[in-house]
Structure formats: structure tokens, C-alpha cells
Input
Amino acid sequence: MAIRSAGRTRKTGAAPRRSARRGAQRRVAILMGSASDWDTMKPAAEVLEELGVASDVRVISAHRTPARHRAYVTKAEANGIDVIIAGAGGAAHLAGVTAALTLLPVLGVPIDASPLQGLDALLATVQMPGGIPVGTLAIGRVGAKNAGLLAAAILARRDPAVRAALARFRERQTASIPVRP
Ligand code: RP5
Output
């Protein structure tokens, strides 16, 4: 079953939606606690699109929209999602609570959204007590990009097309590194 595209967000008015191919099954969910997180999370959607993986981008807060969060996450696996990426700033519990509600792998992206410059979100996301794991990436846009790549690597175990796209990505990346400065 296909999942609806992201709804309209309150601050920007723009709908953070992203689909690699029109009508393609969105296999990776990209959740963020606020529309203000979208600029940071965008590299996850962009790299997945580059690899031909459709993503479902949603603004969902564990504490400000708890009902929306539970409804989405508990149905995600049945709706064809394979991996969930969750980015949040401050006392960032989005990834941890998401992981508690699903058996899907959850990748957390700490976001620099407070005077502590993301250190708070990093610790909140990475320091999950034993039993409910969150695969935590780096703070900010680099972490989001790597979350997209890691999600693709997970899909690639059973999807030869994604594996081939990932291999081509690595080749392009290697070729782009100059021998001399
Ligand atoms: C967190 O609070 C969000 O993930 C965001 O990083 C931060 C600030 O949110 P806004 O006040 O910009 O909506 O829940």
C-alpha cells in the first residue's frame, strides 16, 4: 500500500515531500520533529533520490504530535517502509520513541537547534538505554546524508538495484577526489 505524500507544514507552508519516482513505493521514512528541521534533513532525501530510493518525508513530533507519531510509526512496516530515519533537535527523543514503537531499523540524526549546538540532541539520540537501539549518525546535514546512505545500504542487502546504485555512488565519489590539492 502506498503511503500518502507529506502534508503541508505549518511554518514554511511548503510540503516537504520527496519521491524518487512518481508512484514508486516509498521505502524509507524521513521523520523530523519540526518543519524547521527540513533544511538539515534534506540531504537524506536527496541522496536517497540519487540512489533511486523513494522516501516519505513527514513532520512528526513525539511530544507535540504524539497521536500522529504513534499512528504513523505503528503502521509504517505494514505500509511498506523498511527503514525509518528520525531527526530532531534539543532533548531529542523522536528517534528513541520511534524505535520503541516499531521493529524496523531506526536511524537517528541529531539536529543543531538549541544553544548546545546539537550536543544535547546527540546525547539524547545516541544514549539509548539497552534494549531499544537507535543507529545514531553525526550531528546535522552530514549525519542526514549518511543516514540516507546507511538506509540504502540496509535495503541493498536484498535489492540488487539499490546495491548497484550504491556501488556507482561510491565510484563517482572516489573519482571526484583529486590526486593533488
Ligand atoms: C525539536 O525542537 C525539533 O526537532 C526542532 O529541532 C526543535 C525546534 O523546533 P521548532 O521550535 O523550530 O519548531 O522538537
